Amino acid sequence: MANIRIRKADGVWTVRAGGAVLAESKNALELSEGDYPAVIYFPQDDIAMAFLDESDHSSHCPHKGDASYYSIITKSQTLKNAAWSYENPNDEVSRIKGHLAFYTSDTVAVEQI
């Protein structure tokens, strides 16, 4: 298994896209995997799911399981497959179940406030 570590992310984290705050959470998780940059996973309850549209894209990670993807719908554009979730993650990363992570870009910001 890859060296995956999950811990509670310190402080309050937000996701912004298209001028809107999509998520704000004190309960975000930080997942560290090997040499990759840490990824913040937001509890689904802290996300404005109305802005997200589940896509038919999926991927498989041997360590985490099968990922489902979501597109973000903003006023001006649709950001395809900009977020992902492991609905039924492998046991060793079960803490990320019910959480979504977001790809950061020039249109999506994930930041600690």
Would you mind describing this structure in some detail?
With 113 residues, the chain is mostly beta strands. It has one domain (4-112): Metal Binding Protein, Guanine Nucleotide Exchange Factor, Chain A. It has no helices and ten strands. It has strands spanning 4-8, 13-17, 20-25, 29-33, 39-43, 52-61, 65-73, 78-85, 99-102, 108-112. A seven-stranded antiparallel sheet has the order 1-4-5-9-8-7-6, with no helix packed on it. Strands 3-2-10 form a three-stranded antiparallel sheet, with no helix packed on it. The radius of gyration is 13 Å and the shape is globular. The termini are far apart.
Offer a concise description of the structure:
With 113 residues, this protein is mainly β.
- Written as H for each helix and E for each strand, in order along the chain, the element string is EEEEEEEEEE
Structural class, by secondary structure, is: mainly beta
| The CATH topology | Metal Binding Protein, Guanine Nucleotide Exchange Factor, Chain A
Shape: globular
- CATH class annotation: Mainly Beta
